[in-house]
């Protein structure tokens, strides 16, 4: 996720135990936050129900394309970004 710089500490056992505990609590907080965000997302996503080719009843998420716009893309002219407006994105080389 992020690059880290390793720092070797020479501290007492009590301080080391406290630091390990705090790292564990921070990891638990991140994991629980991601869990709740994912649950909220998947509970609010629309689902479609259908029968597959074998006649089995199935449900699936209704997937849709998401278009993201970036400030430098909005300032680019059509010559630099020929796919602009088509819903597709293309990386342009910086000069």
Structure characterization notes:
By secondary structure, the protein is α+β, with helices and mostly antiparallel strands. It has two domains: 1-61, no CATH class; 65-95, no CATH class. 39% of the residues lie in helices and 11% in strands. A two-stranded antiparallel sheet has the order 1-2. The protein is elongated. The relative contact order is 0.07.
Instruction: Bin the helical content.
Output: 25-40%
Structural class: alpha+beta
Radius of gyration from the CA trace? 24 Å
Question: What kind of sheet is the major sheet?
Answer: 2 strands, antiparallel
Counting DSSP H or I runs of 4 or more residues, the number of helices is 2
Spatial order of the strands in the main sheet? 1-2
Distance between the termini: 29 Å
What sequence of helices (H) and strands (E) makes up the elements? HEEH
Please, how many domains?
2
Give a short synopsis of this structure.
The protein is α+β, with helices and mostly antiparallel strands and 95 residues long. It is built from 2 helices and 2 strands. Helices cover 39% and strands 11% of the residues.
Task: Please specify the SSE layout and strand pairing.
Blueprint: H1 13-44, E1 47-51, E2 57-61, H2 71-75
Antiparallel strand pairs: 1-2
Supply the key terms.
95 residues, alpha+beta, 2 domains, two-stranded antiparallel sheet, 2 helices, 2 strands, elongated
């Amino acid at each position: 996720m992020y690059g880290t710089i390793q720092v070797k500490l020479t501290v007492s056992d009590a301080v080391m135990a406290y630091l390990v505990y705090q790292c564990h609590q921070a990891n638990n907080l991140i994991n629980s936050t991601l869990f709740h965000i994912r649950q909220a997302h998947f509970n609010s996503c629309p689902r479609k129900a259908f029968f597959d080719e074998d006649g089995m009843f199935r449900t699936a998420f209704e997937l849709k394309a998401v278009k993201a716009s970036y400030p430098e893309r909005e300032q680019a002219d059509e010559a630099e970004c020929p796919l602009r407006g088509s819903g597709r994105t293309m990386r342009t080389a910086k000069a």
